[in-house]
Design goal:
Order of helices and strands: HHEHEHEHEHEHEHEHEHHEHHHEH
Number of helices: 15
CATH class of the largest domain: Alpha Beta
Structural class: alpha/beta
């Protein structure tokens, strides 16, 4: 881990201290199509393409590449060339499996004496750690907050994980998992780590190599591994796609951090999108996002739920709340994306049946 942190610090110190040409979409009128749209800044990537390809090779030993599909109805709705990256097609129904597979592979290679791991989760990360950890012959313990999705808890147990409930939200579960790690001797896997990000970047490599000349990529932000992986893949490939982060208005920590230029925590979160429920952002993720992301869009829960309904009617795919957030953001940015080639990261499909049925019913 120290090697990755050292590489991060060395390369970060080589970048400029400010980010020119960044703009907030709410301040861009879009009235004159000839007006230049600011380009996303580019800095030295944290991992070169060989390092990302090495991680992708390990990921692909366990799962095939997921598809990126141009859906005609979505393209028609926005007057744009709209592609969806389907991370709902992985064995656990979420992109996070990629990071866990690479992390466990590196852990087993560098620390063969470790026999168990522990992590905190609302579900997708826990399923991913369970899938990768059990596959790697490790004991897996996951901590979830009280009231967590029972279907997610059952999915983690079915994969072989031990599930403990603690606290009122993800942050409480995260802190408890850290304490349990010290007491039990289990290796703690933090929900954000650049080893995880290196594996997660494999989905962005697939997307960028399959769909050339993307203008925008909209990515949901939970704790940041997905959007950071997308940034690193874009930079390593030397592309110019503008990356846009999406958060819920009831969990605005990363939007507040983006506009403040430093990590900003909130005292609580209030969103139906579990994957966006972050109140304490990761400082390293904030640093990379603030340097490299074009802008961050905040969407309401009502818009997220409408996007879930549109995904189902237009593509017959189930999108959990966080996964539908990029589509919700696109409705707010129609003037910006018209005539552009756009990708949406459908990051996962894990939502309880009754809850999804209620949302579809409107």
């Amino acid at each position: 881990m120290l090697l990755y942190q050292l590489c991060f610090e060395l390369r970060r110190n080589d970048t400029v201290s400010s980010c020119p040409n960044r703009y907030d979409s709410r301040e861009y009128s879009g009235k004159n199509k000839s007006d230049p749209i600011p380009k996303a800044p580019h800095f030295n990537p944290m991992f070169n393409i060989d390092e990302l390809d090495r991680a992708a090779k390990i990921v692909h030993q366990a799962l095939p590449a997921t598809p990126q599909i141009r859906w005609p109805r979505l393209s028609e709705l926005f007057g744009a060339d709209v592609w969806v990256k389907h991370e709902n097609y992985t064995p656990v129904g979420a992109f996070k499996i990629r990071g866990a597979l690479f992390y466990v592979s590196e852990l087993r290679r560098n620390n063969p004496e470790i026999d168990g791991v522990i992590a905190a989760t609302r579900g997708n990360f826990g399923q991913s750690v369970a899938f990768a950890g059990i596959r790697g012959g490790l004991r897996v313990l996951v901590v979830v907050p009280h009231g967590n999705s029972q279907e997610q808890n059952e999915a983690m147990r079915s994969l072989g994980a031990e599930v403990i409930e603690f606290g009122r939200d993800f942050q409480d579960a995260l802190e408890h998992a850290g304490r349990l790690s010290k007491e039990s001797g289990l290796h703690f896997i933090n929900s954000f780590d650049f080893v995880l990000v290196q594996g997660v970047a494999s989905y962005a490599l697939e997307l960028f190599r399959s769909v050339p000349e993307l203008d925008y990529v909209y990515v949901p932000i939970g704790l940041g591994s997905g959007i950071c992986g997308t940034i690193l893949a874009r930079n390593a490939l030397g592309l110019k796609a503008r990356i846009v982060g999406v958060v819920a208005d009831g969990a605005p920590a990363y939007a507040l951090s983006f506009h403040a230029g430093k990590p900003i925590s909130t005292s609580s979160v209030d969103t139906m999108a579990d994957g966006l429920s972050c109140r304490v952002p990761n400082p390293e993720a904030v640093d990379l996002i603030n340097r490299e992301v074009d802008h961050v869009v905040t969407v309401q829960d009502s818009a997220i739920m409408e996007a879930m309904r549109i995904y189902f009617s237009a593509t017959h795919n189930v999108a959990e709340g966080a996964a539908a957030a990029p589509l919700a953001a696109l409705f707010q940015e129609q003037k910006i994306v018209r005539g552009k080639r756009v990708a949406l990261i459908l990051s996962g499909c894990n939502i309880d049946r009754d809850r999804f049925a209620s949302i579809l019913a409107g």
